[in-house]
């Protein structure tokens, strides 16, 4: 019986694993090892638990379990809370964003038991990943000189959607005009994002396992031309976009080891690896795992904007001289996560999600512009949504993971100085557990998902606001329509979540992923933005666990 498991402590042979002490100068340090009351775990179980932790937990709680989006799970805490607490938390989740791994069926009872026991043990130290490892993993599949010199297919490349097929370890390229799958390409596991080179030719994707694929859209059938593994766990990739530097460089950020790497933009040859380990911006205390979260390419300077989660620093990395690397390090806020530009592309807004704040930096002056409390719990904008509010002028919007609120921030210091970098309105959408919000310059609608809401009906629907009817009366919430996207998909089995609205290139259609379990049917639902009616349900056996979708033109030009 699972509940009895914690009592199954090691005895007898445990003595052999007793923690030993050694003296390092004056310092007493404990060599990591087994503690006398550690739960018993075979090497096989430990291996399996480490794999599950890596795939499901490390993203929020950190490889070293020091916490970020999720709570810290170091043994000083887990051992006080105890096995039963962990087991129930993993099973049922929490409204603050911890998924219900047990009741959702994603982990079975034995796995939940295994993970609860695993968390009582010290985390294993993961290996480093430096230049030798990167070079070893680096492959140029088609050399630049052997690639096409013009577009060899008749696709409308600007309207291609790169769709993550999460659990299949693939991306699907879907034609935005015909809604047909053009090709399915093997990538790393659970590709997190897709980015497009400044010219619009190359597509870069990065797997959770740190594998970057560079895909040439000019090939008759677009495919990988180079790949490299830049770390053990990663989330972000980007390419240089400043004038004169188009397609020249690429950058990828790793969660583990905490570092970023700048690569050649034609071959992915790794050129420069920079560790982000260092001190937390305010406490000035060393952190061993400051992970690289979002990365964007500046339009104002030859710089990458690199967001370092745990130390709360935003780095402007000047990529013109890698041998004499210049970096402006901005003190922002801890737990930086995701963000995007304002409509002018001069300001970058990023969520310090566990601190309930948005940090704004000026990419022209390389300075912190503002730190704004959103009033909601755990802002989670994706790249956010820019639109012109009828009363407040240009705003950027975020939704929240921890509650149902949407916050609008004024982004026009010239035209609307009173509203600039303030929350101008805050209103309710469908429910907590929102991951992404989206609009388009050609649309009058603001779409807000609630993908992680515990209620299946809410998590499979989307809220739509009509921007033109927003009155600016902060006392009354604007009304919204609820689109039953999951229902429209007509999927009989499972509990699919509806995630990440993404527009086609003209801003006339908005696409949603209906993300079901790996062994169940999923779909992409296309909605007509004008009428808010269903336009198309894309279903295909190859569409396994679709999550993020990235329109080539919108991603290339940072339109959102
Ligand atoms: Fe994401 C963006 C990290 C969970 C789908 N996610 C990002 C970014 C980061 C990040 C740092 C910004 C990248 C950039 O702009 O350069 N995501 C993390 C996590 O650490 C977290 C919380 C936990 C984890 O274990 O990974 C996490 N993310 C998820 C999911 O569960 C999602 C829904 C599905 C999945 O693949 O795991 C998911 N994240 C996405 C998507 C984007 C994203 C689709 C890009 C949105 C956009 O429109 O830009």
Q: Specify the number of helices.
A: 7
Distance linking N and C termini: 51 Å
Overall helicity: 10-25%
From the spread of the alpha carbons, the general shape counts as: globular
Strand share of the residues?
35-45%
Q: Count the beta strands.
A: 37
Bound molecules: heme D
Please compute the radius of gyration using only Cα atoms.
23 Å
Structural class: mainly beta
Report mean pLDDT, rounded to a whole number: 92
Uncertain runs: 1-32
The profile of the biggest β sheet is: 5 strands, antiparallel
In what order do the strands lie side by side in the largest sheet? 3-10-9-8-7
Describe this structure in words.
The chain is mainly beta and 560 residues long. 12% of the residues lie in helices and 36% in strands. It contains 7 helices and 37 strands. The strands form 10 sheets. The protein has a 5-stranded antiparallel sheet with strand order 3-10-9-8-7. α1 (43-61) packs across α3 and α2 packs antiparallel against α3 (109-118). The structure holds heme D (DHE). Heme D binds next to α1, β11, β17, β21 and β33.
């Amino acid at each position: 019986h699972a509940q009895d498991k914690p009592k199954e402590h090691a005895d007898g042979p445990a003595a052999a694993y007793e923690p030993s002490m050694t003296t390092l100068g004056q310092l007493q340090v404990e060599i990591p090892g087994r503690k006398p009351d550690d739960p018993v775990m075979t090497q096989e179980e430990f291996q399996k638990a480490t794999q599950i932790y890596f795939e499901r937990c490390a993203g929020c709680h950190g490889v070293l379990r020091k916490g970020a989006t999720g709570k810290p799970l170091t043994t000083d805490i887990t051992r006080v809370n105890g096995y039963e607490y962990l087991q129930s938390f993993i099973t049922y989740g929490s409204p603050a964003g911890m998924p219900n791994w047990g009741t959702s069926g994603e982990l079975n009872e034995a796995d939940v038991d295994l993970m609860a026991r695993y968390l009582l043990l010290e985390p294993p130290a993961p290996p480093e990943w430096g230049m030798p490892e990167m070079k070893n993993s680096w492959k140029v599949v088609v050399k630049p000189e052997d690639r096409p010199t013009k577009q060899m297919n008749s696709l409308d490349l600007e309207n291609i959607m790169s769709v993550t097929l999460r659990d299949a370890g693939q991306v699907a390229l879907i034609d935005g005009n015909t809604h047909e799958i053009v090709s399915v390409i093997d990538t790393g596991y659970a590709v997190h994002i897709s980015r497009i080179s400044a010219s619009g030719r190359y597509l870069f994707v990065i797997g959770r396992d740190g594998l970057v694929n560079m895909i040439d859209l000019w090939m008759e059938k677009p495919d990988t031309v180079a790949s490299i593994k830049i770390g053990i766990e990663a989330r972000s990739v980007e390419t240089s976009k400043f004038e004169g530097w188009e397609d020249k460089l690429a950058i990828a950020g790793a969660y583990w080891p905490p570092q970023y790497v700048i690569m050649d933009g034609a071959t992915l040859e790794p050129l420069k690896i920079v560790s982000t380990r260092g001190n937390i911006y305010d406490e000035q205390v060393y952190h061993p795992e400051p992970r690289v979260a979002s990365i964007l390419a500046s339009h104002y300077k030859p710089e990458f904007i690199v967001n370092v989660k745990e130390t709360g620093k935003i780095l402007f990395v000047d990529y013109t001289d890698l041998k004499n690397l210049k970096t402006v390090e901005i003190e922002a806020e801890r737990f930086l996560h995701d963000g995007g530009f304002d409509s002018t592309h001069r300001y970058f807004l990023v969520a310090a999600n566990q601190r309930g704040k948005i940090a704004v930096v000026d990419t022209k002056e390389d300075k912190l512009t503002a730190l704004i409390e959103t009033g909601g719990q755990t802002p989670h904008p994706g790249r956010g949504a820019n639109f012109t509010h009828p009363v407040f002028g240009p705003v950027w919007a975020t939704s929240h993971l921890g509650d149902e609120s949407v916050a609008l921030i004024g982004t026009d210091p010239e035209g609307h100085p009173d509203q600039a970098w303030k929350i101008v309105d805050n209103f309710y959408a469908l429910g907590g557990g929102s991951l992404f919000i989206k609009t388009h310059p050609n649309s009058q609608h603001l779409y807000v998902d609630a993908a992680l809401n515990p209620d299946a009906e809410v998590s499979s629907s989307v809220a739509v606001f009509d921007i033109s009817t927003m009155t600016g009366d902060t006392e009354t919430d604007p009304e919204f329509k609820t689109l039953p996207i999951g229902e429209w998909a007509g999927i009989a089995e499972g509990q699919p979540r509806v995630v990440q609205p993404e527009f086609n290139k003209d801003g006339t259609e908005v696409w949603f992923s209906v993300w079901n379990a790996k062994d169940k049917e999923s779909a992409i639902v296309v909605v007509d933005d004008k009428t808010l009616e269903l336009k198309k349900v894309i279903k295909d056996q190859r569409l396994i666990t679709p999550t993020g979708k990235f329109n080539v033109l919108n991603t290339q030009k940072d339109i959102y």
